[in-house]
Amino acid sequence: MPAAAISVHGLRKSYGEYEALREISFEIAEGEVFGLLGPNGAGKTTTIEILEGYRSRDAGEVTVLGFDPERAGSAFRERIGVVLQQSQLWPTLTVTETHRMFAGYYDRPRDADEVIKLVGLEEKRDARVKTLSGGQKRRLDLGVALVGDPDLVFLDEPTTGFDPAARRAAWELIRSLRSLGKTILLTTHYLDEAEQLADRVAVLREGRIIREGTPAELTGGTNETEVRYRQDGHEVVVRTTEPTRLLQELTAAALAEGREVEGLQVRRPTLEDVYLSLTADEKG
Amino acid sequence: MRLYRHQLKWEQLVFWRSRESAVFVFLFPLLLFTLLTAVYNGQIYGHPASWALLAGMLGYGAATTAFAGLALILVARREMGILKRIRSTPLPPATYLVAVLTSIMVVFALQAASLFVLGKLLKSTPWPHHVLSLVLSLALGAAAFAALGLALTGFIRSLEGSSAVVNIIVLPTAFLSGSFGSVAHYPKVLRAIGDVLPLKYLVDLINGIYLNGQEIWDKPRAVAVLAAWGILGMAVAIRKFRWEPREG
Known about the structure:
The complex is a heterodimer. By secondary structure, chain A is an alpha/beta fold. Chain A is built from ten helices and twelve strands. Chain A has two domains: about 5-220, P-loop containing nucleotide triphosphate hydrolases (Rossmann fold), CATH 3.40.50.300; about 225-270. Chain A has a six-stranded mixed β-sheet with strand order 5-6-7-3-8-9, with helices on both faces. Chain A has a three-stranded antiparallel β-sheet with strand order 2-1-4, covered by helices on one side. The two termini of chain A are about 40 Å apart. Chain B is built from ten helices and two strands; from the N terminus they run H-H-E-E-H-H-H-H-H-H-H-H.
């Protein structure tokens, strides 16, 4: 296994009485894409902002690229790229100017034009930032995060508010970063996004990691299969650990009566189902 | 140093590219000077009114540019998340802030020079004699107001209210401090309020140098009061300045 880019042990953080993080631990290997998943208020942004060096922690050990982010300075920031959940850039500068301004902060920046091409803004290179669409602004955010040629990229909800086409374009972009060997930590509340992009996922709820693993492990953790069909005009949904037997019974009965099983669907649970069942527990 | 020069260059580009800052921050004192000199024709402090108004407008310019302009620019950047974003780069925060402060001082220097040219063109106001004293006084005044502007950002919570907060401070201050003419005939209470405000001392300093042929060292009290306000501003700024927008 390659060296850990990020390692977190026993991390705690409270805001006054409110415990935002209650002892979380995880490791992210170099070159890995790691997804932090969870509902709003679960502690995703608190976690990522501690790793970025914005927030102090109350307890625990945190190492990012060999640095303690709470005390790290410029040498650490040379190697990270940050896309914040919400941020804007100077509306009156152009795309190229914005990239050049940020490139000047780094010792070994990437060529601004190259980065603009990478994030797909070539046609907008001379456009003022205020004239860009929401999706284009987000790509600009990403370009600015990449212009210092970071080893590690933090993406806090990179596609929130995107239409489906823009989201797919962003996914392609994040995959291309991964092929450049960058380590990526992304937070998202879109399950398909985590499933599509992340090598490993941690599900956060109320400041704790309640499940961690590859998307396949998480969905494989439950061995129930969902079978849906229509009967007398009503949809029937059955979750079973014995899908073979259930299907055999269903189809045998239908065959015997000489009819079709209407609307038959058999599917393995998606990450979404697992996530919903995990996050629904809190109400119990 | 390379980072400082890089940032100063971009600060200037960002400032002049934005029509709001270029018009409201840079041109406003010039516009006000034009209007006031068109209205007042008599004498103030025993000199043609335009001379005294030029001196007053230099003080007002320091307050509106270095204090109000700086505060509005920084609150906007904070609430837009630009300051937070900058913090994630290797640019040291102190380098960034010093570049931002220098940039606004450059704007004020150009504004002050433009006021003299405008005065010459419109009302044949004289060029200043004690240039060094004048430059030092304006630099001290602008630096003190910039420090106070930096401190003020800590008390402005949102972008929406920022311009109202800033104006309610700057306009009465300028009025009470003699930027728009002599305060000699103001009621005692109003003069007493003016007497504790930093702008009053900057206007006194400029009046002394520009109108009465004094040097900066002839007014040690005004210099001390301005410096004290600057230090107070810096002390508050260190405690109150925030890089991150308010959580929404």
